[in-house]
Amino acid sequence: MKSVCFYFQVHQPYRVKRYRVFDIGNDPEYFNDRSESDLNNRRIAEKVARKSYIPTTALLLEMLKRHPELRVSYSFSGIALEQLERYAPEALDLFRKVVDTGQVEVLGETYYHSLSFFYSPSEFERQVGKHRDTIRRIFGVWPRAFRNTELSYRNDLASWADKAGYTAILAEGWDPILGWRSPNYVYRPKGTENIKLLLKNYRLSDDVAFRFSSREWSEWPLTTEKFGAWLGEAEGDTVNLFMDYETFGEHQWEDTGIFQFLEHLPVEIAKNPGINFMTPSEVASAYEVRDEVDMPHVVTWADTDRDLTAWTGNPMQRAALDSVYGMENDVLLANDHKLLEDWRRMQTSDHFYYMCTKWSNDGDVHAYFSPYESPYEAYIAYMNALSDLKLRVEKVKR
Amino acid sequence: MLAFLSIFPAMKMRILMFGWEFPPYNSGGLGVACLGLTRALAARGADITFVMPRKLDVSSPWARIIFADGKNILTRSVNSLLSPYLTTRSYAYKRSRLDGPNMDGIYGHDLMAEVLRYAAMGGEIAKEEQFDIIYAHDWLAFGAGMEAKRVSGKPLVVHVHATEFDRCGGPLGINKDVYDIERAGMEAADVVIAVSQLTKNIIVNNYGIPSEKVRVVYNGIDETTAPSGGGGLPRLRALKASGYSLVLFLGRITLQKGPDYFIRAAKRVLERNPKVMFILSGSGDMDKRVMELAASLGIADHVIFTGFLQGAERHEVYAAADLFVMPSVSEPFGITPLEAMRLGTPVLISKQSGVSEIVRHALKTDFWDVDEMANQILALIKFPGLRQTLSNNGSAEAETITWAEAAQKLDGIVHEFASPV
Predict the structure, then answer these.
(1) What is residue B391's three-state secondary structure?
(2) Domain region containing B141
(3) Which of B364, B389, B393 to mutate to test the interface with A (most CBs of A within 10 A)?
(4) Spatial CA neighbour of B237 closest among B291, B274, B279
(5) B65 forms bridges with which residues in the sheet?
């Protein structure tokens, strides 16, 4: 028996508007851009819902009904759900419906899609708790598998998740760490008792997420038949296909044929004998651990480096992270709901990603995903807004 | 094919180039560009006869000088009062200061007459020299290039470093004579080199030159043209020691360079942070106006005019600055930001500049957006992470924008239009 395990990431940050130094002390709203630019969070949420979330989820809902054996999983950031609730309730309704089929697992993560695990463990736990409560409120389910922001992972994260009672944790299946081991098996994270580690098969995942419409790729066009056959040929217990949900309709536009590809996938996969669909928790309970995996250093699913340097690689990023996490005690002491909320929104990893200046092979990816004209502009807006937040905290403290 | 090559060794391309005096005798980017391009082309094997106008002793109409370290560069100086950035008025002033009787017999009575006189000499030189292709830098040399083409029948390349639209900061106040010469030069040329896409757009839209005839070749920088040395300017060091941040403008103080926007941004910055000094390094026809503007805004004591700096002092002022600002209204390229970046000084450049098309590690703003300029200046002073990231990445980036790369492109273009015989 072999399983195919889908996990889709649904996340939208609160982008900081072009906040100028002259706004400090005068404007306590950081996320309310109303221009026609990509800094307008409402505009982006509406656009992504229209192009991707609504058509993809409607399609999946149909597919789940047509194929009772189909399983998928989602991870929703709390701030994405918030924005959908407000700006695209239709998308949220569809997400509720797919979860209600019982064929869908919802994973745990931080509410604010932050890197707090690496900067403040206590804040991390509060954000995971808030996320869990939100998932229960909206979907009526309790996350049993965990994935951290940008699939960032380290041994101590697995230890934490193990103690917190999760059955599975997700990470990148990066060859330099795996060595001879295949990502298509279940592993035990070093230093844990019960939790199981599921690794992303990045080659097959990225064939869909990144290369699907690339005409320079020798395998273009990627047909459902071809991809189904590749999954059939893959050795191991599980093929973990992890990707951004926006792959469908936003990164790969509708006219690339991505929706037809998705629609026919269950039938093509089922043509392989002895293959089925599972969610991460199902994979964890169905398959035996093959080996222990030791990841003492952070591994993520980003760039060719697969580390945190896309968020922490330059002095601006490190200064911004130090500044925002350095405020923790003051913000908590201020005990003001709006301040706490703004501070946490400023922790979302995307803010630091926009400041990335690693412009080599990955540069174009970063430029594609940034709503700012340059990483420097992103940093200036962020630091100015954070300066205002500090002023507000000071005021409440006094 | 290989046998053919071994029997006939590669012929050298011989270029008759009409350019401008090299730094430090020349102010501004044109001389720097001539030096950088000529050296880099010579390094690729071209044989260059470099003709430049220069005021010489009346007894020797022109001189031959062997270029110190460039064995394939021969320079010829032609006795002329022409220099880059001349206007009708500044030419008249320059000429009026000459001593001696009967100057009329030597130099043109006005700028246009002098341009014509120089053009005629270009034709004379073309009759004497052996070359495969003619190359002229900017409008003052176009006449000489056209005349050389007429006499010799060889192909002509014109290199546009700036247009009349840039110098006037827009279509108002265009000198029709200058425009006509620019246009005639570009029309007569076999190919037009523009220093940026911005300049190419002006050439196509305002001079009616077909797009396919205009090629973009960006300028560069390397150790031969970058400022070096150190020392001097103790006052700047003292200011820094007492806690002031230094924000630098370096360039001609003229409409085109936007010094007035720099002063208006300074005003906005000082409202928020009084520990900043604004340095203007250069001179030009707006000196007085800019000083008056600073005074009327009440910030005269935060604005320092150094005059024109060169050599070690220029290096020092770049290095001492916390931020270099180029607020140009219309900048065909803009080499000065590369000079600052090379030294690790962060730069803020206007989006109305050619250099902003290729530089990524810079702050950028529209020249007219004084608030945004002030916002970025204040951020740079306040957040060390920004300064350090710009400094690290900027100096690395400037190393990759070289004259060698520009010369490689030019070499290819020159070979499209001429073959050495």
Answers:
(1) helix
(2) 2-220+403-417
(3) B389
(4) B279
(5) B75
Tell me: pLDDT of A324 over 60: yes
3 state DSSP class of B176: helix
* CA of B44 vs chain A CAs: smallest distance (Å): 29
Query: Which residues from B are below 8 Å from A380, CB to CB?
Result: 375-376, 379, 383, 386
Nearest to A198 by CA among A180, A179, A176, A178: A178
Residue B318 shares a structural domain with residue B359: yes
* Bridge partner residues of B74 (DSSP): B49, B66
Residues 6+ apart with CB under 8 A from B278: B247, B249, B262, B263, B266, B269, B299, B302, B303, B304
Chain B hits for A319, Cβ within 8 Å: 383-385
| Cα–Cα distance measured from residue B179 to residue B186, given in angstroms and rounded to the nearest whole number | 11
B357 and B211 within one domain? no
Contact B199, B386 (CB under 8 A): no
What are the tokens at B412? Answer: 């290819």
- Chain B contact for A379 (CB, 8 A cutoff): yes
Residues B296 and B383 in one domain: yes
Nearest to B23 by CA among B336, B404, B286: B336
* Residue B231 pLDDT: 64
Place of tokens 């803009």: B334
In sequence order, what are the beta bridge partners of B15? B48, B133
Q: Does residue B33 belong to any structural domain of this protein?
A: yes
Q: What CATH number has the domain bearing residue B267?
A: 3.40.50.2000
Q: Which letter does DSSP use for residue B22 in this model?
A: P
Average pLDDT of span A167-191: 95
Span A85-106, pLDDT tens digits: 999 999 999 999 999 999 999 9
Low-confidence stretches of chain B (pLDDT beneath 50): 1-7, 58-63, 65-70
Name residue B394's amino acid. G
Q: Are residues B251 and B211 in the same domain?
A: no
Q: Does A138 touch chain B (CB under 8 A)?
A: no
Same domain, B48 and B178: yes
Answer whether residue A142 shows pLDDT above 80.
yes
Locus of tokens 């937040």 = A389
DSSP three-state, residue A145: strand
Taking one residue from A and the other from B, the number of pairs with CB-CB distance under 8 angstroms is 67
Q: How many angstroms separate the CA of residue A321 from the nearest CA in chain B?
A: 11
Q: How many domains would you assign to chain B?
A: 2
Answer whether residue B190 is part of any domain.
yes
Has residue B226 been placed in a domain? no
Q: Write down the CATH number for the domain with range A2-293.
A: 3.20.110.20
Q: Which of A109, A150, A172, A268 is catalytic?
A: A150
For residue range A355-392, what is the model confidence (pLDDT) as tens digits?
Answer: 999 865 455 566 668 999 999 999 999 999 999 999 99
A79 touching B, CB under 8 A? no
Chain A nearest C-alpha distance from B193 (Å) = 29
User: For residues A146 and A158, what is the distance between their CA atoms, to the nearest angstrom?
Assistant: 9
- Kindly report the backbone phi and psi dihedral angles of residue B189, in degrees, each rounded to the nearest multiple of 5, phi listed first: -70, 155
ipTM of the complex: 0.90
Contact yes or no for A277/A69 (Cβ under 8 A): yes
Residues B148 and B297 in one domain: no
SS3 B380: helix
B15 belongs to a structural domain:
yes
Which among A151, A179, A387 has a CA at the least distance from the CA of A292? A179
State how far residue A155 is from chain B, nearest Cα, in angstroms: 30
Q: Is A69 labeled as catalytic in the residue annotation?
A: no
User: Are residues B123 and B265 both part of a single domain?
Assistant: no
Q: Answer for the pair B272, A24: CB distance below 8 angstroms, yes or no.
A: no
Tally Cβ neighbours within 10 Å of residue A230.
15
Interface test with A, best of B370, B375, B377, B400 (most A CBs within 10 A): B375
Task: For residues B179 and B256, state if they share a domain.
Answer: no
What are the backbone dihedrals phi and psi of residue B215, each rounded to the nearest 5 degrees, phi first? -115, 140
Cross-chain CB nearest to B386 (options A359, A379, A387): A379
